[in-house]
Amino acid sequence: MGTKVNVIGKNTFMLTDRLIRVNQFLLVGEESALLIDTGYGGKGFASALKKLAPQRLFVANSHLHPDHSNGNSLFERIYVGEADMPEKGMPSNALALAVAEHYEKHVPKALIKKILSYGLITPGKEEYAPMSASFSLGGRTIETLACPGHTPGSTLFADRESGDLFVGDAVNGAFWAFTDPSLTLSGYAEVLKGLLPRLDGCKRLWISHSVKPLEIGYIEAFIETLLDVKPEEGKPVGIEGTGEKVCIFKRYTRTFGDIGIWAFRSQVR
């Protein structure tokens, strides 16, 4: 299926895995470039990068989940939020294995193996480094903002000159909170509230699972949803093997439509 490349701004590219539909973002400066996420490093990904950014390349993960980081082995050094460093543990692997263990009673082993090839983080020989506070690309500086929630080390990337904010999975219309069971929705709302004053100049959100940007005001609507949903409103979704049931909590907003939160009921507080 390969990698699709879209130009989304001056010297700014979205690279989308055609099979998995997850985006990586390439920000090019005069001297170097920053790649945000590596996806699965699928067919055509490396060659597209060489054409777009032949100069020095920084590589960073918005968070350490397989659909954002399993192409890391193509590179020598990866920057990641300190709480997501591989040596801190990889809780998403434990979650994927628990779900697989439940379904292996009902699904052919070959299919389970194939699913796990996409669902497990598989670090290789690449070196991991704690996230830099900023990346100077030559005539272009990208700031990083810690946003613990979807994972403890989730990171946002702000290009204030262009107005673009790259958020990974930290804010979207189908937010997964259950990937960090210690997270509470009210606690995450406070994290996002604390970030709002630091988003001066940001106009658009680019998320990992949509090719269309969201207005910066989406964050406030998202915060309101986190604070407004009630435990009893959750509707179980078809994910088994997680212990507590994963539920979806929804709110309709006039400006942005439905906002959904996937969480355990115990997190809704």
Q: State the shape.
A: globular
- Label the CATH architecture: 4-Layer Sandwich
CATH homologous superfamily caption: Ribonuclease Z/Hydroxyacylglutathione hydrolase-like
Mean pLDDT: 95
Strand count = 17
SSE-based structural type: alpha+beta
Poorly predicted sequence stretches spanning 5 or more consecutive residues: none
Tell me the fraction of residues in β-strands, as a range: 25-35%
Q: SSE string, helix = H, strand = E?
A: EEEEHEHEHHEEEEEEHEEHEEE
Query: What is the third-level CATH name, the topology?
Result: Metallo-beta-lactamase, Chain A
- Total helical elements: 6
| Top CATH class | Alpha Beta
Tell me the Rg in angstroms. Answer: 18 Å
Compute the number of structural domains.
1
What percentage of residues falls in helices of 4 or more residues?
A: 10-25%
Largest sheet, if any?
6 strands, mixed
Read across the widest sheet, the strand sequence of neighbours is 8-9-10-11-13-14
CA-to-CA gap between the ends? 42 Å
